[in-house]
Amino acid sequence: xxxxxYTPTQVKKLSVETDINVPFFDVDxxxxxxxxxxxxxxxxxxxxxxxxxxxxxxxMEASNYIWPIVDLRVKYIKxxxxxxxxxxxxxxxxxxxxxxxxxxxxxxxxELLTKATTIQMAVDITTGETLFSSPEILIEKVRxxxxxx
Length: 149
Description:
By secondary structure, the chain is an alpha+beta fold. The chain has helices at 37-52, 57-62, 136-147, and strands at 15-21, 65-66, 69-76, 85-94, 99-107, 112-120, 123-124.
């Protein structure tokens, strides 16, 4: 289903870049970032992307939806270490039936260190029902963003 005014081949992907410096408390005794902390870096990127379309988690809740992650896939390519400067690139891949985002963690030298995807499904707060099409509010927010590009 393609929404009016949006054709995937006409529009550049919605993306954000989030800068991160790996803190000491994210690494193990060998100075390598523990694998679970990468999820935190993805979350920071996801929040930046949601701000960009003006639909933050607080706005989601106010519109009567929560968006739990139902699928997460991570490919660890090279270790991330203490005090390393990273760039998390978060891109919107799908939004009409679910919210699918892709992530790349890039080192200072431009090397790809990690890549991942998350899928979130809208859940009606009142009924607890999972929706298999995104609520109109998300469609409107994405459409409004693309209209300005």
